[in-house]
Write a structure and sequence with these properties.
Chain lengths: ~130, ~280
C-alpha cells in the first residue's frame, strides 16, 4: 500500500452511491496515475473526513442520504479545505448554480470526457 | 235484421286491446333503443377515459424527461469512464485492468437496456394486465422519477413504508400513475411555501387493506372544493386540464379501492387511498 502511495500522484476520494460508478471512477483515476478511495454516501465520508488525505473529492450530487451539495456545505462549515469536484447526471442549470454556490471547483455532467476530470484533479492539486 | 258481426259487437274492446298491444310494442321498442344507446355511450365513455388516462400518463412522463435522461446517463457515464480508462490501461499494457473495465462496460450496458425496458412499459396504452404489485417498490420507483424535482425545489422527504411489504393484485403501470400524479400534485402545491416536506406512508391496515398516504405542506384545499376535487375538468391551477385526480379515482375504484383527501396536520393536504391486499381477496373468495 505504501508503495502504491508513493507511485501515485495523490488520492482522490470518490463519493457516489452507485457501486458501478465507484468502480468506473476508481479505474479511471488509477489509469491516470492517481489512487482512489471510495465512499458510498456523504455520511460514510463524514465519519472519516478528519483523517482524509485526499488531494480532492469527486462527489456525485445525487446521493442516498444527504446530497453532495449538502455535504459540501457541511464540510465548509467544519473548516474542510480539500477542493471538491461535483459530478451529476442531472442536466439542470438550477442544480449547477447550487453546486457552484457550495464552492465546487468544477461541475461535471455525466457522461464526461476523462480529460475534463483529469484537468480538474490537476487544478485541485494546485 | 241480421246478427251483428264480431267487429260491430266488440268494436270498443278490439280497439282497446289493439291500442294496448301497439302501446306495449312501442314501449318495448323504445326500451330496446334506449338500451342500445346506453351501451354505445358506455363504450364511448370507456374509450375516452382510457385515452385520457393514456394522455395523462404521457404528459406526466414528458414532464419527467429530465429524470428519465438522468437514469440513462448513469450507466452511459460508467461505460464512457470504463472505456477511457481501458484505453489508458492499454497504453500501460495492463491487461487485467482492461478486462475489468470491459466487464464494467457490459454490466452498465445491460443496466441501460433495463431502464429502457421499464420506460417502454410506461408508454404502453390501455394496459389491462394484472399482476402482484409490491406497493413499497412502487412508491420507491416513483420517488426515483421525481428525485430531480425534490432536489430542485429543496423538498424534504419522509417515508414510512410498512415492513410487511403489502401486495395488491392490480395493474402496475396504472397504480404507479396514481402515485406519480399524487406526488407531482404535492410537489406543485408546495412550490411557494417556506416549509416543504413530502411525507409518504404505506401501511397494512387491520382489515387487510393497504393504506397509502401522501402528505404535503402546501397550500391545502378549500373546504368548498373538497367535494369537487376528484371530478373531471375541475382544477384550481392555471394550467392543466384537471383530469389527474379523476383519473386517479377511476383507477383506484377499478381496483376495488377508495381514494380521499383530508387536511394535513401542518396545513397542506393528505391524499390517501386504500386497496384490498391479495390475502383479503382470497378470504373473500
Amino acid at each position: 500500500m505504501e508503495e502504491l502511495m508513493s507511485n501515485s500522484q495523490g488520492i482522490v476520494a470518490v463519493i457516489d452511491d452507485d457501486p458501478e460508478m465507484r468502480a468506473a471512477m476508481t479505474s479511471l483515476v488509477s489509469a491516470y496515475g492517481y489512487c482512489a478511495e471510495t465512499f458510498d454516501s456523504a455520511e460514510t465520508f463524514l465519519t472519516c473526513a478528519s483523517t482524509c488525505r485526499a488531494i480532492c473529492l469527486l462527489v456525485d450530487i445525487q446521493l442516498g442520504g444527504i446530497s453532495g451539495v449538502e455535504l459540501a456545505h457541511q464540510l465548509a462549515a467544519d473548516g474542510f479545505t480539500v477542493p471538491i469536484i461535483f459530478m451529476t447526471g442531472l442536466d439542470d442549470a438550477v442544480i449547477e448554480r447550487q453546486a457552484v454556490a457550495a464552492g465546487g471547483i468544477a461541475f461535471l455532467c455525466k457522461p464526461f470526457p476523462a480529460t475534463t476530470l483529469v484537468d480538474a484533479i490537476k487544478k485541485a492539486a494546485g | 235484421f241480421r246478427d251483428p258481426t264480431v267487429w260491430e259487437q266488440y268494436r270498443a274492446h278490439i280497439l282497446a286491446v289493439t291500442a294496448a298491444i301497439l302501446t306495449q310494442a312501442a314501449l318495448i321498442f323504445w326500451l330496446l333503443y334506449e338500451h342500445w344507446r346506453r351501451q354505445r355511450a358506455e363504450i364511448l365513455a370507456r374509450n375516452t377515459m382510457s385515452e385520457l388516462t393514456h394522455v395523462n400518463r404521457m404528459a406526466t412522463v414528458s414532464q419527467l424527461s429530465a429524470s428519465v435522461a438522468h437514469e440513462v446517463r448513469q450507466p452511459l457515464a460508467g461505460i464512457l469512464a470504463n472505456a477511457q480508462a481501458a484505453l489508458r490501461w492499454l497504453e500501460q499494457a495492463n491487461v487485467g485492468e482492461v478486462r475489468e473495465s470491459l466487464n464494467g462496460i457490459v454490466s452498465d450496458g445491460f443496466r441501460a437496456s433495463d431502464i429502457i425496458k421499464n420506460l417502454r412499459a410506461m408508454f404502453k396504452s390501455d394496459v389491462q394486465e394484472r399482476t402482484l404489485v409490491d406497493i413499497n417498490k412502487l412508491v420507491s420507483s416513483v420517488l426515483k422519477l421525481v428525485v430531480i424535482d425534490l432536489q430542485k425545489h429543496a423538498i424534504g422527504l419522509q417515508t414510512q413504508l410498512d415492513e410487511r411489504n403489502p401486495q395488491v393484485l392490480g395493474n402496475q403501470v396504472q397504480l404507479q400513475q396514481v402515485i406519480l400524479n399524487l406526488v407531482m400534485n404535492a410537489i406543485e402545491s408546495m412550490s411557494s411555501m417556506e416549509t416543504r416536506v413530502l411525507r409518504i406512508q404505506t401501511e397494512l391496515s387491520q382489515s387487510n387493506k393497504v393504506h397509502v398516504s401522501i402528505e404535503d405542506t402546501g397550500t391545502g384545499i378549500k373546504p368548498s372544493d373538497v367535494a369537487q376535487i376528484f371530478k373531471p375538468m375541475f382544477t384550481t391551477k392555471a394550467r392543466g386540464m384537471g383530469m389527474g385526480l379523476s383519473i386517479c379515482q377511476t383507477i383506484i375504484e377499478n381496483h376495488d379501492g377508495r381514494i380521499w383527501v383530508s387536511p394535513g396536520a401542518n396545513g397542506g393536504s393528505i391524499f390517501q387511498f386504500e386497496l384490498p391486499t391479495v390475502a383479503s381477496k382470497d378470504q373473500a373468495a
